[in-house]
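Much of our argument rests on the idea that a fold can be written as discrete symbols. Part of our work consisted of pairing the sequence of a single chain with a tokenised description of its backbone. No coordinates are needed to read the tokens, only the vocabulary itself. The record that follows shows the chain in one-letter code together with its fold in token form.
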Amino acid sequence: MTTGVVLVVPGGIDDETAPSGGNVYDRRIRDGLAATGLDVRQIAVAGAWPRPAEAARAELALSLDSVPDGAVVLVDGLLACGVPEVVVPRAARLRLAVLVHMPLADDVGLSGDVAAELDRCERKTLAAAAAVVATSTATARRLAARHGLGAVEVVPPGADRAPLAAGSATGGGLLWGSAPTPPDGEGPVPLVLCVGSLSPLKGQDVLIDALARLADLTWHCRCVGPSRDPRFVADLHGRIERLGLTGRTEVVGAHTWEQVGEMYAACDLVVLPSRAESYGMVVTEALARGIPVVGSGVGGVPEALGDTSAGRPGLLVAPDDSAELAVALRGWLTDAALRHQLRAAARLRRDSLERWPVAARRMADVLRAPAGSTRE
């Protein structure tokens, strides 16, 4: 029986200034595996993954060479899938599992040639693995069909139970910055929160364009997340100014998880306008606080959003469609009955979310399976 696992992850997964969903997943699975009784050894390899410099490739090779024959090794796909020349020759002597957060070619902004090459590399790596793990059923199906895999395991992220968000109804929403004070009698300003790395993949530009169609309504929006693309961030600021949204829309950059938690507590609605998502941990982070979500209906987002006896706890829209997103947001802002229904459904969904220990046990079951059995 497997009693130990080597976890190979990108450098900096514990860095609070880089709070990506992938980092959180890796960290929580690492800690959860240890809690199941497995002996977990972590190897962190810094580099510009999935297209690293030669020094990072060499470090990954040395790290894998340091692992004993037959050891169970779980490698983050961001590292493994782009460098089959490093991983494949070493896979035969290891019980190698590859965790795919998102197919490499799904990243937005890649040239056709780069996307095709990353796709070929990913196929080679996954074909050599004893097990492949995805974070949603939608991603697992795509990987299986795309790369001809016999089976892909699914281990969705967990969610921590959190206090119900107070939102702007108590005035708490005004704690985080420049939300305008409405005229007397108009009540608090609805606060909309968008959490995710500031990048074309996450679609903050689509959200800003949608908000420009809602200038006649009262709202305040905050986009928070680490910058992955300085030119894109500069475009966001320019777009806000050009569309007359200065003072109503903030782009505040990276914050610690504790600070982001406070932002969740102060908001009324979370928006996830991504062009692609393997799962969408932001969705369950919001639902864990009873906050409804408006999100792109891509990848695993519908799975994360889920359903309840009171209906879906949010609204799904087409990706990269600012007009449809604006319609959904206008409905939420102007229809009190819709807001009440979505909030009630979000609170019901909050109670059904699986916790991180469940995710860790699922991963432990995958890793404890006989070599190759999950691929048959």
